[in-house]
Specification:
single chain, alpha/beta, eight-stranded mixed sheet, 18% strand, globular, disordered C terminus
């Protein structure tokens, strides 16, 4: 369970680093200590949309100690931390851009929390913040960019022109600096507004004559292969053009539950989830958000559970591998096959 949100802040009087939250920590502990749920992992999400970014000044060691101390005072309510720093509705606001210092701090805090304090560390970038299928190796600190491939007015698509809240590979620097193995999982928010995944599985699928379910399965497969193969991002000094990769056993894909409209936010098909887990040995799936469970009759936790069980029990009668062409990279031997993934 990822509890949203906590924030890195400074004490008004001492200017020392503190952790601030509006979460009901008694409720967190109550859920954590519930009988029969002892194996559930609980992490604190840092950030969120429209949320403040950590202020400059403290070192990574200061922030890591502040979080560890906060957690200890609260009875070790959390098993770790999940990075979810994002942009802002105000495109000219200070959090519509990252600083290099913030990205470096995120990476260094991750290493310290993992190695010094023994905590779990994960990240949940919007797809445009860590896009394995990006057209080029461009990197940007800006979080107010037109979303690709929606950056051209498209008569067949909803009006995406004027929407400009995407990033460009910013989390790649965090991943590279800390090392991908620092993170217990990397959750890609495919439910980002006007995401590449949405375009592929709606507008792109209609143009190709592909069924939405097939398009969603193909899209997740292509991303998983590319994350395994690696892709290049020009991270700037001192790293330059660098290979970024994430192993399938650390990849988590994020979907929306009942609040998704299928036009601005992708609406995943249950059949697609079943086929994804049948084809790919990824870490898992996550969804935003628990409070929307049951909206429009959609219970995403149940959908994901059924999909995983079907993949384990091999009972999916309507799945046919012959309906799907292998990715070109798989066919030419540059990537592992589906069973290895």
């Amino acid at each position: 369970v990822c509890w949203s949100f906590v924030h890195f802040d400074l004490d008004v009087e001492t200017k020392s680093p503190i952790i601030r939250t509006d979460l009901d920590l008694d409720a967190v502990r109550s859920v954590r200590n519930h009988g029969g749920w002892e194996d559930v992992l609980h992490v604190a999400a840092v950030g969120g949309w429209n949320a403040p970014h950590p202020p400059p000044g403290p070192t990574a060691a200061d922030w890591a100690e502040a979080f560890a101390d906060f957690n200890a005072r609260e009875g070790n309510a959390f098993d770790g931390l999940d990075w979810d720093l994002e942009g802002h509705d105000d495109r000219d606001g200070p959090t519509s851009q990252f600083s290099i210092e913030t990205l470096n701090m995120m990476a260094d805090v991750s290493v310290l929390l993992k190695e010094r304090y023994g905590l779990s560390v994960s990240m949940a970038p919007a797809e445009s913040y860590l896009d394995s299928l990006a057209e080029d190796d461009a990197f940007s600190l800006d979080l107010n960019l037109p979303p690709r491939p929606w950056d051209e007015v498209d008569p067949d698509a909803p009006a995406a022109d004027g929407f400009a809240h995407a990033g460009r590979q910013c989390y790649a620097r965090v991943l590279h600096r800390a090392g991908s193995r620092t993170f217990d999982w990397v959750s890609i928010q495919l439910y980002e507004k006007f995401s590449r995944f949405l375009h592929e599985s709606t507008v792109g699928a209609r143009r190709r004559g592909t069924e939405p379910t097939n398009a969603q399965v193909e899209g997740v497969t292509a991303r998983t292969v590319k994350f395994f193969d690696g892709f290049r991002v020009d991270l700037g000094p001192p790293y330059g053009r660098t290979r970024i990769s994430v192993d399938p056993d650390r990849l988590v894909y994020g979907f929306a539950n009942g609040w998704a409209d299928g036009e601005k936010f992708v609406k995943v098909e249950e059949k697609a989830l079943r086929q994804i887990f049948r084809r790919l040995k990824i870490r898992g799936a996550m969804f935003w958000t628990i409070e929307e469970e049951g909206t429009a009759g959609i219970h995403m936790a149940d959908m994901i559970t059924r999909a995983i069980r079907a993949s384990i029990d091999d009972e999916e009668e309507d799945f046919d591998d012959d309906d799907y062409d292998d990715d070109d990279n798989i066919r030419d031997g540059k990537s592992p096959d589906r069973d290895e993934l």
